[in-house]
């Protein structure tokens, strides 16, 4: 891995056809192939007869193809991934753990991160409402550590034995395999209505968190409670957090729905384009730590994965950062074959008795057996970067070859002896466990509504509105009244107003009294607004510039320069792809600018901001229904819209809403109202343009 300084096994496996020492086609056995287009046939030269099965070249090609698919992941099937590195800032976590990856600032640990959606299959769309997986493989010198998390800090269920029920309920229904890429159906809402421990996670997924703008703008959470250990024998409970440098932003539901059709690969393209353009996605790495002695000091169980540890009670400690800087070379061997397992921890990091985590530790290895086989760890993307030396042998698709006569321990030659814990071997914390075997859950696991209420109370008014709309959308897709009646009863226990609003929307019985009182508690970090970056940035934000023949070139250039020096991505959208000419240009001299897309090709939903330069081209734009819809839609989605000179009049005509103020046309001042930025003077001075800022996150 050139960029991170540390090698990965992939380097030895990578074939780069453009630099291969030989440039010819061979069979899988390395035999040169003379023809890959025609199957061997019987023919007298004019008549062509049947194919001959003897053709080993054709058979190999087709048979390989016949077996190209492996089972997709039973959940998180759709995803994408990238390589990068992880670094800690200093030694501050040494008081909690001896794991060098978390304590040694001189280390730059290579990572691979896979982002995913949960419900849909491999071919589903990126922008569906769903939880996003955020799984990180740290290739540490002490072995691989897999932190298999989500973009939401809690989970639907407390016990892993419920996982098959939950997944069956959320996945497409068994009789007709509907729906794809969404949870808006009877079975999901039936299950969560009867399993109220899911209420907290349901609130998160129905909030804007369920439709992120980009993987680069999502938080990540380890979700489960893990432990950290010191060499002197202290144990701490820990939760892991990723916080994106760019802030936490979401799409509007209307945008998400449209993008699902307009560009189903929106998120994966966004990730790779950012890396290609050097706008490297970056996250702060934080921990929340509770000393073992304080495990029972809270009114919730700290081992319950349906609960957060409110930051007011357990503050975040930032200890490091992660940067993604390299795309995979080939999707299948890297993104499809990467395999995570929560049981993959390294010395200094351990498990807790979190019942969800304990079950996960079993399930992930098991699922890799069915997807990839018992030697899944030997696949290039899964290989540790430190030596792997043990007596495991054989199994399907074994790659490693170990010489010698010994494949067991103890052995007379002392080959591969276990390392005593003090010498760096994995050390399981010696916890004393007593009890009676029972199928039981802890007492505090029985309380389900405090934290969903805390979450709802903490949202900004517009976030609450989105949440009501989202639940209403989903329940509207449930045609069994039992399902939406049951869920409105659940909502009553979270917030009375919320329950009434949803019930009214979906035709459910409107509750006449709350299930319980609203305790009025809030926690600031639960709202996305909390993560607004201190300095607004347009880095890698997509800006559409709408032009037709006759736009003002000088002004266009000034805005273009301002945006590109701020590292925004500018797309020129015109009546057709190709040359569009500014005013005063003889069309034959070829001095136009090239439109990247035509108005039908890329809709406003695919952009964060829209800018319309001044010029008589506005008359052309105004005649085009698609352009009018483009701008109205962008305004409706609260996008930043920039308009100058004549374009202001155009905007005023089509976005004729009370309360939206536009600049007078003879003014030099920059005016912003509802995200609409206007500069009024037709002959615009470039100094005025320099002050034009298009801020992200206005939605
Ligand atoms: Fe899981 C995949 C995250 C609970 C069983 N899970 C999977 C992936 C992520 C998560 C991000 C995709 C990994 C990848 O990109 O390859 N899962 C979670 C989180 C959970 C959680 C944050 C709750 C804290 N999972 C969970 C439970 C079970 C599983 C309780 C089973 C008892 N998860 C699986 C699995 C998957 C999986 C079936 C499917 C593909 C895979 O593992 O490799 O084993």
Automatic annotation (TrEMBL):
Heme binds at residue 364. Residues 26-417 form the Catalase core domain. InterPro entries: Catalase, Catalase_AS, Catalase_clade2, Catalase_clade2_helical, Catalase_core, Catalase_haem_BS, Catalase_immune_responsive, Catalase_large_C. GO terms for biological process: hydrogen peroxide catabolic process; response to oxidative stress. The keyword Translocase does not apply. Its EC number is 1.11.1.6. GO terms for cellular component: cytosol. It is an enzyme of class 1 (oxidoreductase). The keyword Oxidoreductase applies. Pfam families: Catalase, Catalase-rel, Catalase_C. Its cofactor is heme. Keywords: Heme, Hydrogen peroxide, Iron, Metal-binding, Oxidoreductase, Peroxidase. The active site is at residues 76, 150. GO terms for molecular function: catalase activity; heme binding; metal ion binding. Belongs to the catalase family. Catalyzes the degradation of hydrogen peroxide (H(2)O(2)) generated by peroxisomal oxidases to water and oxygen, thereby protecting cells from the toxic effects of hydrogen peroxide. This is Catalase. The lineage of its organism: Eukaryota, Fungi, Dikarya, Basidiomycota, Agaricomycotina.
């Amino acid at each position: 891995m050139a960029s991170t300084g540390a090698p990965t096994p992939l380097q030895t496996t990578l074939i780069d056809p453009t630099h291969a020492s030989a440039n010819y086609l061979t069979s899988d056995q390395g035999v040169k192939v003379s023809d890959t287009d025609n199957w061997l046939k019987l023919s007298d030269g004019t008549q062509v007869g049947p194919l001959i099965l003897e053709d080993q070249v054709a058979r190999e090609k087709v048979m390989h193809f016949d077996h190209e698919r492996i089972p997709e992941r039973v959940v998180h099937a759709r995803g994408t991934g990238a390589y990068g590195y992880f670094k800690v800032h200093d030694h501050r976590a040494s008081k909690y753990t001896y794991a060098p990856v978390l304590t040694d600032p001189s280390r730059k640990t290579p990572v691979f991160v896979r982002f995913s959606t949960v419900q849909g299959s491999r071919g589903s769309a990126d922008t569906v409402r769903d939880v996003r997986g955020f799984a990180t493989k740290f290739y540490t010198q002490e072995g691989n550590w897999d932190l298999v998390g989500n973009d939401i800090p809690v989970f639907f269920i407390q016990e892993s034995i419920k996982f098959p029920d939950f997944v069956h309920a959320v996945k497409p229904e068994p009789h007709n395999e509907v729906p794809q890429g969404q949870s808006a159906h009877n079975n999901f809402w039936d299950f969560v209505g009867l399993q109220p421990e899911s209420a907290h996670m349901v609130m998160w997924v129905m909030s804007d968190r369920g439709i992120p703008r980009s993987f680069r703008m999502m938080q990540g959470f380890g979700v489960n409670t893990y432990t950290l250990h010191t060499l002197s024998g202290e144990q701490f409970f820990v939760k892991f957090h990723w916080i994106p440098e760019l802030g936490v932003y979401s799409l509007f539901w209307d945008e998400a729905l449209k993008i699902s059709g307009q560009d189903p690969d929106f998120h994966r393209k966004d990730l790779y384009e950012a890396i290609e353009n050097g706008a490297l996605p970056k996250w702060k790495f934080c921990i929340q730590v509770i000393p073992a002695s304080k495990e029972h000091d809270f009114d919730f169980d700290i081992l319950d994965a349906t609960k957060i540890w409110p930051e007011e009670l357990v503050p975040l400690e930032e200890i490091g950062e992660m940067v993604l800087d390299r795309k995979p070379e080939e999707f299948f061997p890297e993104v499809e074959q990467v395999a995570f397992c929560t049981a993959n921890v390294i010395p200094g990091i351990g498990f807790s008795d979190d019942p969800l985590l304990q079950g996960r530790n079993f399930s992930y290895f098991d699922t890799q057996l069915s997807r990839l086989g018992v030697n899944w760890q030997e696949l290039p993307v899964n290989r540790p970067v430190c030596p792997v030396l043990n007596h495991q042998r054989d199994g399907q698709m074994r790659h490693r070859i170990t010489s010698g006569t010994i494949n067991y321990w103890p052995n007379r030659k002392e080959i591969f002896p276990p390392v005593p814990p003090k010498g760096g071997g994995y050390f399981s914390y010696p916890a004393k466990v007593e009890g009676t075997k029972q199928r039981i859950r802890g007492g505090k696991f029985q309380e389900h509504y405090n934290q969903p209420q805390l979450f709802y109370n903490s949202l900004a008014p517009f976030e609450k509105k989105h949440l009501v709309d989202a639940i209403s959308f989903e329940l509207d897709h449930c045609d069994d009244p039992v399902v939406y009646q049951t869920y409105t009863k659940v909502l009553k226990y979270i917030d009375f107003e919320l329950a009434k609003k949803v019930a009214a929307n979906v035709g459910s019985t409107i509750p006449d009294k709350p299930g319980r009182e609203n305790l009025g508690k809030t926690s600031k970090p639960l709202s996305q607004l909390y993560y607004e970056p201190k300095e607004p940035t347009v880095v890698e934000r997509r800006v559409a510039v709408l032009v037709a023949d006759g736009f003002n070139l000088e002004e266009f250039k000034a805005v273009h320069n301002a945006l590109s020096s701020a590292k925004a991505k500018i797309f020129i959208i015109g009546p057709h792809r190709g040359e569009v000419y500014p005013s005063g240009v003889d069309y034959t001299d070829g001095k136009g600018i090239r439109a990247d897309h035509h108005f039908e090709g890329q809709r406003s939903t695919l952009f964060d901001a829209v800018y319309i330069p001044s010029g008589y081209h506005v008359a052309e734009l105004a005649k085009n229904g698609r352009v009018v819809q483009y701008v109205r839609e962008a305004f409706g989605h609260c996008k930043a819209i920039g308009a100058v000179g004549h374009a202001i009049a155009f905007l005023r005509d089509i976005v004729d809403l009370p309360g939206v103020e536009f600049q007078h046309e003879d003014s030099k001042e920059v005016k912003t109202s509802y995200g609409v930025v206007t500069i009024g003077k037709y002959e615009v001075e470039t100094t005025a343009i320099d002050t034009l800022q298009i801020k992200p996150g206005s939605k």
